[in-house]
Amino acid sequence: MVIGGGPVGLATALLAERAGLVPLVLEPRPAPIDKACGEGLMPGAVAALSRLGVQVGGHLFTGIRYAEAHRSVEARFRGGPGRGVRRTALHAALTAAVERAGIEVVPRGMATLDQDAAGVRVALQGSPAAAVRGRFVVAADGLHSPTRRLLDLDVPPRGPRRFGLRRHFRVAPWTGLVEVHWSAVGEAYVTPVADDEVGVALLGSGRGSWPERLQAFPGLRERLGSAEPASTVLGAGPLRQRARSRRAGRVLLVGDAGGYVDALTGEGLAVGLAQAGAAVTALAEGRPQDYPHAATRVGRRSGVLTSGLLVATRTAPGRRAVLATAHRQPWLFTRAVNALAHD
What we know:
Layout lengths: L1 E2 L3 H12 L5 E3 L13 E2 L1 H9 L7 E3 L1 E6 L2 E6 L5 E3 L2 H14 L3 E3 L3 E6 L4 E5 L6 E4 L2 E3 L6 H5 L3 E2 L7 E8 L7 E6 L2 E9 L2 E8 L5 H5 L3 H7 L3 E2 L4 E3 L5 E2 L3 E2 L2 E3 L14 H17 L6 H22 L3 H13 L1 H12 L2
Parallel strand pairs: 1-2, 1-12, 2-8, 5-15, 12-22
Antiparallel strand pairs: 3-7, 4-7, 5-6, 9-10, 10-11, 13-20, 14-17, 14-18, 14-19, 15-16, 16-17, 21-22
Helix pairs in contact: 1-3, 1-7, 2-7, 7-8, 9-10
């Protein structure tokens, strides 16, 4: 049973069905589900979706550019492009794949759950009262996972609390790269998602409206000019989430539900898909105890690099040092980007 029908939850169900399991998905929200995110799929995530038979549209991008003021550095992918895809389009494609596979999606959420030696009973929200039972549960219910809280696996976050805002604009992409603009208040991510549209995500520890936070990025504001907004502003956060464990008995936490570092390197979905595969493998083999170590392993490289960059770029001298190092040793920057891109 999968709690949460977002992209990682639906991918988990598809992987489970291929492994000979009989998945059931609980998701009260109608598809497609939108979310405030950068919407850039790294090449590794594109390949993982393709292996599931999920072909996404959107717009190709061939690398990453980091920029601050008048200095920038970029790295190209060596093993194929990534894709900028509206979150709604990604979710619609996964929903269609789940329907083709004949996987049942119950339009109800979890109220409570209880587990014993043989399985897990999940009481459903709403009336009339109902419950479903499965041998195992995979919780893929997001950044603020109700399952994580219910199982008392939440760990109070440490350090600055970071939040994100996302909006789309009707303007032709001016580059075939994902741009990450740094400023004193955080970062702005620009992802091409169509031939005539870009998505912009603003991340940082400060609060404020979209216009107020965009003021910190004058170069980007000039690029957008008078472009017409193509979506409303969505928010997310606080981004940093920690869990005591990614497993409690017969319940496994995948994706953001099991903890989240930050969006800085754009690897959230790729790591979530890899964890979904690790969870299904552990359950198919009847060894849920193997999952926490496997989940840590697939996310280790991304987590270490993201944490390091967050610390290094918190101050203006730190940001300048990162960019200067990348300029002096472009091979190192390219290697780091490609290590993440093709995980």
